[in-house]
Recover the amino acids of this structure.
């Protein structure tokens, strides 16, 4: 199963470029040029990672992050030309998991995506192990 990535950016050239780039690295890619549609696609397609632009006309990255966080814990990686520490902090507080400044080398972007997927997978394994601790008589082990 390949990693499914949703790219949300209002610039058609960026979504096309990201799609081509990420597909060459074996990712399954879904793109949209609308923040509102991006929120809908998270609910419908259950991507493993969302790549999100901050500055968009219909819903900006902060609004999209908050809307996604209302129903999903999918990792959100922000890609933005804005390099202001206050804005970075603000969007991370709104629910984003990572922030990269455009232009970002493709190797760095792919490495961040893979790191995010590894971390998410690790967290799920830890959660499953924690919740499955039972004694042979099927009673939970109390600590």
């Amino acid at each position: 199963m390949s990693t499914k990535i949703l790219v949300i950016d209002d610039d058609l050239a960026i979504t096309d470029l990201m799609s081509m780039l990420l597909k060459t690295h074996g990712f399954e890619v879904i793109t949209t040029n609308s923040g509102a549609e991006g929120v809908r696609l998270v609910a419908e397609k259950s991507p493993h990672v969302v790549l999100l632009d901050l500055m968009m006309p219909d819903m900006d990255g902060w609004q999209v992050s908050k809307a996604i966080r209302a129903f999903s814990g999918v990792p959100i990686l922000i890609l933005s030309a804005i390099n202001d520490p206050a804005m970075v902090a603000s969007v991370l507080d709104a629910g984003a998991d990572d922030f990269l400044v455009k232009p970002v080398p493709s190797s760095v972007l792919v490495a961040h995506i893979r790191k995010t997927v590894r971390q998410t997978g690790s967290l799920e394994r830890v959660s499953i192990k924690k919740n499955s601790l039972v004694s042979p008589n099927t009673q939970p082990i109390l600590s």
Observations:
- The longest strand covers residues 4-8.
- The domain at 4-131 is CATH 3.40.50.2300 (Rossmann fold).
